[in-house]
Amino acid sequence: MNEVRAISIFVRTATLGNLRKAAVDQGISPQAASHAVMQLEKALGVRLFHRTTRKLSLTEEGQRLLQNVEPALAMLSSAIDDARRSKEEVAGPLRVSAPKALGHAVLWPSILEFAALYPDVQLDVRFDDHFTDLVADRADVGFRGGSPPSGGAIARRLLPIQLIVCASPAYLERHGTPKSVDELHAHRCTGYRRANTGKQAPWEFLIGNEIVYREIAATLCANDIDAETEAVLAGLAIGQLGSFSAASHVRGGRLVPLLTQHVTQRESIYIYYRHRTEQPLRVRTFIDFMIGRLANNRDFFLEASELRA
What we know:
With 309 residues, this protein is α/β, with parallel strands linked by helices. The chain has 10 helices and 13 strands. The protein is rod-shaped. The model has no long low-confidence stretch (mean pLDDT 88).
């Protein structure tokens, strides 16, 4: 017996005072409604209604049950309505996880735009350089730079990540321009320390058809990409920066790309999420919005012609 269903039929019968009307209200046959009420009486071991050919009235036990279950049934109905509305309204809580490296440079302006357009969505954005398991961390949407996430999540590629060696015009004027990868060892260089391992990331280069990694001694090392970018802009050193950080500065003349024949593009920025059919409308709307703003957005990478220039 479906007890919740039987109690619902009992409450509607008591409220309407008629089993046939309660059946119509519940979208079932009178026979099915009568059977549900009798099953409930049998399970409880009490009679809930006095029955005559003309009249249906509550017994004392039925009256007590009605008083006890009506508030709980109303709360259950409200909860179901809220869940149903979450499929129809762009409102409610939305948990987003992303690496700090992508936060301010790529994601935050679009997230703020979404928040302004949909003020009824309560955004909870967590910047964390560790990979987020959506289920374990109760996140709705994640972003990741690198390779596509595994583990059953749906991933959509948004942007390529180019690793570009670059320096400010002021640095090059003072220290000269390296003409090869080997000449970098004679220059001041920045380093990026990975948050998840604590190790300094090697620089990587495309040489021929292979990706080659080099350990570059850092005169200034940080575990924050924005901080590293600021150091390069300040003319303190040469850095290898992601295109999402460097592109706007290259276009603005604040940075000069170097050794562009060796730029790599093996990684990308991804958005990932669980199956769309299981998502409330607020989550689907956010996913579509971020894809629309970021997918192949040229603000965050450089064309080959721009690198050559």
